[in-house]
Amino acid sequence: MKLSNVPAALALAAALMLCAYSCKPKNTANAVSADAAQKTYVPPGKYDEFYDFVSGGFSGQMSVYGLPSGRLLRVIPVFSVDPQAGYGYSEESKPMLNTSHGFIPWDDLHHIEASQTNGEIDGRWVFGNGNNTPRIARIDLSTYNTAEILELPNSAGNHSSPFATENTEYIVAGTRFSVPPDNADGDVPIDSYKKNFLGTISFVSVDKNSGNMKIAFQLKIPGINLDLSHAGKGPSHGWFFFSCYNTEQAHTLLEVNASQRDKDFIMAINWKKAEEYLQQGKGVKQQVKYAHNVYDEKTQTATSTIETEVTVLDAMALPGIAYMMPCPKSPHGCDVDPTGEYIVGSGKLAALIPVLSFSKMMNAINNKKFDGTYENIPVLKYEDVLYGEVQKPGLGPLHTEFDGKGNAYTSFFISSEIVKWNIKDLKVLDRAPTYYSIGHLSIPGGDTKKPNAKYVIAYNKITKDRYLPTGPELAQSAQLYDISGDKMQLILDFPTIGEPHYAQAIEASLIKDKSKKFYDIMQNENTYAAKGEPNAKVVREGNKVHVYMTAIRSHLAPDNIEGVQVGDEVYFHVTNQEQDWDIPHGFAIKAASTAELLIMPGETRTLKWVPEKVGIYPFYCTDFCSALHQEMSGYIRISPK
Ligand code: CUK
Ligand code: CUA
């Protein structure tokens, strides 16, 4: 520890903690626009204009809100089990949460990215990253199901993820925590970090038709921390930009260790160049283990495959893949404007916003104007790549979104505000307080070539005094601002699930009409589907008992089950016979140590139960489905072994 750094570090720590108290405005009511109610009121029975897909942070799930009303429409289970939907409890869905470490019922979902075509949101899929056990999920926007989860090997702290290239050629994921590669000995001293720890960037290709994901290749990079990233677009298509901190490669991230440098880096990756090397066979095949989980709509069943190989390209050894651009202290956000020319880094410990220029970067690269190397990667000069700096914009810049009219909107955690500034002349145009301590912000299409800049939404870390108190824990909060005029106007607060990080708001017209209403039972290829009540039956195979059960208003069949013994493996395969929108049935059984099932029309879901005690156990439909819902029940008799 350098002693001279200590006072600065303490002052910074104080500033970081202070915000929750100091940024409370005198009169928050004044900050709300007078016509807010009119602007956010969506009358009963009317639809919102946007879907807002919001990360659920440490809940592991994704929530869907309507905008501008702020109404919660749906919670989509992604990385965590969900008793309400039976996700991670039914036999059909359990494989979705399998990993190379076994079944993991939780993760921390940070960022949402919508699929793009020609740099615009196309409304097909949204992607989310699992920050803890590195995974990427793909959610289908016709069923709102998690369709696929891909684990990433050689990776930890999958934070700089899952950002898309212009045509969703790739979903790209960078490591926040460097670790020894999976095929190396992991039992090494932590202070051998510099020698043994590495970062990676995974390029996950996405099939244009099916959406299926595959790790095309991984880039091996130095043991720095990648924080966030965005793809180039237009002229910078083919490049990807990452904010890096801890370029000191310290193994303990106390501020005094990892933030000694005045500048860290934005790393520019030429992925087209990497593709060339790949074609030339410069990749090294590495034996690893990672799970690839796919939900099959036909069989309505997820399968988990453990894959065993990735191709790794060494960005430190293959010239032309990586370049380092200096960026003031510990950049967090790394955002590319709609023209693809400007790259905004946000040094979270800096009091300015650097805007880097892609064309200047290309000039410097083409003229080989380098300022030495970092781990064999050429470093460019700050002056050579800098377009300009926004001076004194606020404290603690984190993330930036764009309106497509030449303006940028940056969130400031410490000064708790959104600042609008002009990209060309770098002048601050407007600022609006957030309550309190904003993290991410999003504008519909705000990280694409074509934003629809009607609103900016703030996703805040602290909710203190905004809602009725609910004990020590308060819901986190989003705030909606109208940005159609010159000035931002706060028009709505709404609570969110978990911790909202990034979000993507999508015009409803892009997706609402293809939303599935029910599954065609005739297309149901689940092995255990019972189509029609006459096909309901109980089949014993050794100690396994398969109950082919049908559910239709208002009857479960069979509803009296006997001949089952303690220790048998009982599988209730429940098929919902309904062929109508929004008529799910549920299924639960007394003392079965698992959640319920929720079965959509035309679907089959299976609950496994190993009874441990003799007795009579009732089961019933858990979702009120008709006037005779209470009659949807039955008994199973468990006899001695
Ligand atoms: S991070 Cu959450 S405020 Cu994980 Cu994207 Cu910046
Ligand atoms: Cu089916 Cu209630």
Automatic annotation (TrEMBL):
Highest rank taxon of the organism: Bacteria
Please give the Gene Ontology molecular function terms for this protein.
Answer: metal ion binding
Q: Which Pfam families match?
A: nos_propeller
Signal peptide: which range, if any?
A: 1-20
Give the chief site where it resides.
other
Q: Indicate yes or no for the key word Transmembrane.
A: no
Q: Does the keyword Electron transport apply?
A: no
**Entry-linked InterPro entries:** Cupredoxin, N2O_reductase_N, Nitrous_oxide_Rdtase_Sec-dep, Nos_propeller, NosZ/Cyto_c_oxidase_sub2, WD40/YVTN_repeat-like_dom_sf
> Which keywords describe this protein according to UniProt?
Copper, Metal-binding, Signal
> Which protein is depicted?
Nitrous oxide reductase apoprotein
Q: Which organism does this sequence originate in? A: Parafilimonas terrae
